[in-house]
Amino acid sequence: MNKSNRTYIRVAVLGLLLVALVFALYSSFVKDPNAVKVGKAAPNFSLQQLNGPDMALSDLKGKGVVLNFWGTWCEPCKKELPALQQQYDQFKDKGLVVVGVNIGESTVAVEPFVKQFGVNFPILLDSQSQITKLYRIGPIPTTFFISPDGDVEEIFIGQLNEAMIAQKVSKILP
Amino acid sequence: MDQRKCECGHTNPIGTLLCESCGKPLDIEIEEQTAFPDMRYEGMARRSQTYTKKVIDRVWNWFSSVKIAIGIIIVILIGSAVGTIFPQQQYIPVPVPTEADVARFYTETYGKLGTIYYELGFHNLYSSWWFVTLLVMLGTSLVICSLDRVIPLYKALKKPRLNQHKSFLKGQKLFAEGPMPEGAKQDELLANAAQVLRKKGYRIFSTDRALMAEKGRFSRWGPYTNHIGLILFLIGVLMRSIPGFFMDEYVWVREGQTVAIPDTPYYVKNVSYHTEYWSESEMPEKLDLKGGVIPKSFQTDAILYLNKNADLPGAKPDLIEVKSGPIVVNHPMEHESLYLYQSGVQEMQLGALNFNLIDQKNGNKELGLIKVDLYDPPKEQDLGNGIKVRTLDYFPDFIMGADGKPATQTNLPKNPMVALEIIADNGKISEKMVYLQGSVITQKTDPQFGLVIRKPDLIDITGLNVRKDKAVPLIYFGSFIFMIGVAMGFFWQHRRIWVQFQEDDVMLAGHTNKNWFGLRREVDGLIEQTKLPLTVEEKSKA
């Protein structure tokens, strides 16, 4: 075998191994390619509304969406609900929708709870926790701020207060 | 004189230890027999030693070094060991929702060392970029080391050298030299030797005055074969990162429930679950189980569905049955590349509460059965005779909240509290009552209606492990090739015996890559049967 042939083969073998390295590194950095990320489109879904028809996220295009995952057993969620309601009242005419996704509870458990807190923004029932898994929800409350064109602007884990919501909502109003 | 030029006239590449043509050791004087070159690669130049001008060649040479390969292995070993000192992030026992919480956990739990551990990325070691890089480097080294050695070795062994230089024969560990026996003929002796060796399973290469007998050459390919297996194995592991190649999920399914399998268009229904126990008659001897039982099998009867409406998650599924049958431990349900394993169970869990509604003012007359499904309590039940039962409030896992109001700790019915309203006589009578912890509390002191608690519905919740691993066939195949390579290298030896006549002397040399005792026996047998006047000297090192 002559010299140039040998170099050619070495370049090919090393190139192939380099591709393997790049791929391995890529997959070590991107552990969950399906995870919901800031700057990416929020995955569409459809769920049954408490006392209402099914609602799809895509129905809300053109509006700023606050997507809040919560449960009646979660104390910070309870404390956060009035703040969410207050901001919803203030901005709903300016194109804001607050959507509460209840995680795996029955209508009978959710309905009196929502009434008790005077919540009137749409509540979706994720009875099988399917959307909770899709959005990779860990601790709750977790809130997604979604822009009018459907991109995730911010993800917040933990309890929000009115000022925080107002500040974040200002970025997603149409 | 050009160093690479052997006295026989052959020009060898730089790095050659034994002349490619005559086998004479190059560059060194064979005064001391122990300095004879290693026979490992037949004295051939490793390809990497040939040219070192270009960057690509330097990279190649770096990876071609066995010292570097061992270095990489040691770093991987040390790294893996360090990764076990503190728990990996996925095994942190407390919730750590954000990266800051993770950092705080290591600092607070393990102090300064914990901080360093976290900062250096040891908390996610096995998928960290540098660990993955090391693994790929090991793979690279494996490929290049093998290529660099197997090709010259193949070339050397393909053309067996018959007329070896005297110093080559002398340098072998088994060597004997003696004068030709009186009246013996070279060709007769050679033919005789060839026959004896052929019987022992040797392949014979010969000329009129030299003979080489060889067997088990393929065992020299063993190490390279097992490297190929290892590389296939590594490729298989790498392939798991390709989307759709690997998944490992866990779903809990209640009896009667149909659940979506995350990240797939499939749903699974638990038709029924049961644990079978060994009966006493089946046991070979009487055991004192102290009232206990021994389970025989854990079985879920399941149906797997494909959701035709999977494009929109959460939307009402359009299910088509694709498979149904039992799932038993070690016998998963299989569909295409999806496997559902029986791997957990919660038996006798509260599924629904049952009550008998009685009319206490009418001789405790039974008015009907009330069933409260604890996973989806009905808003209203009609018992007939104008009696309706409403579920007013429901707390699946009751706890008295800090504000003095009832609350729930989880969304699972571990300690259910249900508030019911009985409506009768077209709404004229309304009585409220609460069920909690095995008793019923009524609102009125002298109620008309009462609840008799009946046996609740107990259900089994099965835990199914859903796995997909398309790389498994390749990983098994790689392991199989690896084992073949190991067997080739372990159980066979590459033995060679040279018989040569030079001037009036007869010379005999032997070489094997292992099991010198076996070779020695064959050489001794050869000398005995051909009646050659030789005494074999076995050197300690060759």
UniProtKB/TrEMBL annotation, chain A:
<protein>
    <submittedName>
        <fullName>Peroxiredoxin</fullName>
    </submittedName>
</protein>
<dbReference type="Pfam" id="PF00578">
    <property type="entry name" value="AhpC-TSA"/>
</dbReference>
<keyword id="KW-0735">Signal-anchor</keyword>
<dbReference type="GO" id="GO:0016491">
    <property type="term" value="F:oxidoreductase activity"/>
</dbReference>
<dbReference type="InterPro" id="IPR050553">
    <property type="entry name" value="Thioredoxin_ResA/DsbE_sf"/>
</dbReference>
<dbReference type="GO" id="GO:0016209">
    <property type="term" value="F:antioxidant activity"/>
</dbReference>
<keyword id="KW-0812">Transmembrane</keyword>
<keyword id="KW-0676">Redox-active center</keyword>
<feature type="domain" description="Thioredoxin">
    <location>
        <begin position="36"/>
        <end position="174"/>
    </location>
</feature>
<dbReference type="GO" id="GO:0030313">
    <property type="term" value="C:cell envelope"/>
</dbReference>
<dbReference type="InterPro" id="IPR013766">
    <property type="entry name" value="Thioredoxin_domain"/>
</dbReference>
<dbReference type="InterPro" id="IPR000866">
    <property type="entry name" value="AhpC/TSA"/>
</dbReference>
<keyword id="KW-1015">Disulfide bond</keyword>
<dbReference type="GO" id="GO:0017004">
    <property type="term" value="P:cytochrome complex assembly"/>
</dbReference>
<dbReference type="InterPro" id="IPR036249">
    <property type="entry name" value="Thioredoxin-like_sf"/>
</dbReference>
<dbReference type="InterPro" id="IPR017937">
    <property type="entry name" value="Thioredoxin_CS"/>
</dbReference>
<keyword id="KW-0201">Cytochrome c-type biogenesis</keyword>
